[in-house]
Write a structure and sequence with these properties.
By secondary structure, this protein is mostly helical. The chain has 2 domains: 99 residues, RNA polymerase sigma factor, region 2, helix turn helix motif (Rna Polymerase Sigma Factor, Chain: A); 72 residues, Winged helix-like DNA-binding domain superfamily/Winged helix DNA-binding domain (Arc Repressor Mutant, subunit A, Orthogonal Bundle), CATH 1.10.10.10. The protein contains 9 helices and no strands. It is globular, with a radius of gyration of 18 Å. The protein starts with a helix and ends with a helix. It comes from Paenibacillus aquistagni. GO terms for molecular function: DNA binding; sigma factor activity. Pfam families: Sigma70_r2, Sigma70_r4_2.
Length: 171
């Protein structure tokens, strides 16, 4: 297959999965502009490295892997910068535009290590199959199944602990 055909398939893939890739990037950074930057950078990387894709059938997982890697790279770069918490932003009058209800599940998900969070997000928020997740994350299927099981177990424990703490506070 020639380069032009691969480019056409990539454009179709990007267009078809634009909402999913944005949600995926947003799940890592929780900021609209940063998520858009990540998606844009991932698109650039995909076009640049298109010659590394050998099977058009695996384009979706290949592209999602680029998005995940780009989001992780972004977080690694950002972790070198000392973040400012929300209270400081409020006192400075620089409150973020990204508002969402702080649900117990969101908080518990945020506290998961990346290897577990990635599997949960890809499986339940992007509705990908275990095999696709394994391909995206470059792991074998059994590793992904184990991580998914462990992540769900950690979430259950965390949510149970949080609800028990609420009961104690209101007692």
């Amino acid at each position: 297959m020639n380069r032009r055909r691969f480019e056409e398939l990539l454009v179709s893939c990007i267009t078809e999965h634009k909402e999913s890739t944005y949600r995926l990037a947003y799940s890592y950074v929780h900021n609209k502009e940063d998520a858009l930057d990540i998606v844009q950078e991932a698109i650039q990387k995909a076009f640049i490295s298109l010659n590394t894709l050998h099977k058009p059938a695996s384009m979706k997982s290949w592209y999602f892997r680029i998005v995940v890697t780009t989001a992780l790279d972004f977080l690694r770069k950002r972790s070198r910068v000392q973040p400012v918490d929300d209270e400081v932003l409020l006192t400075l009058g620089l409150e973020s535009e990204d508002h969402y209800h702080n649900l117990d599940l969101e908080q518990a998900l945020e506290e998961l290590p990346f290897k577990y969070k990635s599997v949960i997000v890809l499986r339940y928020f992007e509705d990908l199959k275990i095999e696709e997740i394994a391909d995206i994350l470059g792991e074998n299927v059994n590793t992904i199944k184990t991580r998914l099981y462990q992540a769900l177990k950690l979430l259950r424990v965390k949510l149970k602990d949080d609800s028990m703490e609420e009961v104690r506070q209101h007692a």
